[in-house]
Amino acid sequence: MNPLKVNDIAPKFSLPDQDGEEINLSDYQGQRVLIYFYPKAMTPGCTLQACGLRDNMDELKKAGVEVLGISTDKPEKLSRFTEKELLNFTLLSDEDHQVAQQFGVWGEKTFMGKTYDGIHRTSFLIDATGKVEKVFNNFKTTNHHDIVLGYLQQQ
User: What is the CATH number of domain 14-154?
Assistant: First the structure.
């Protein structure tokens, strides 16, 4: 696993959102975008992380940041997750984990003694020019939004 680093160019991608609409990273050109990769919708940790972002969306918008969440879940599951948790940002389906691989966050994981391949919980703040401005990989699901907002407030 070799995650993108600060100043790397974010890979261009197109993925279906929770409604099955194709979303391109290029749709956000000229804007800052927080792309956060998470393992699985509707699990306790991923729900805490998503709700933290949802509850702080006004602050993120004030900082000029759009949010895209990416997992390997199917669009139908993302739609249920969005409705259940009243999420106010876009979730994208990377079923074949190609985008996760391009960002360097797909790799071996160990959970409860089992080893498997999956998404490593990492977020990338992409600047208005399409470069990685900041990589967030040291946080808990409960404080992810605080770490991101703390960084944005220092800028």
Answer: 3.40.30.10
Catalytic choice (10, 15, 46, 92): 46
Q: How many CB atoms lie within 10 A of CB 154?
A: 6
The Cα 92–Cα 18 span in angstroms is 6
Sequence-distant (6+) residues with CB within 8 A of 95 are 72, 73, 74
How many beta carbons lie within 10 A of that of residue 153, not counting itself? Answer: 10
Residue 1's pLDDT is 77
DSSP letters along 109-123, please? EEETTEEEEEE--EE
Annotated active-site residue 51? The verdict is: no
pLDDT of residue 99: 98
pLDDT bin (cut points 50, 70, 90) of residue 155 is confident
Q: What local confidence, expressed as pLDDT, does residue 112 receive?
A: 87
Domain ranges of the chain: 14-154
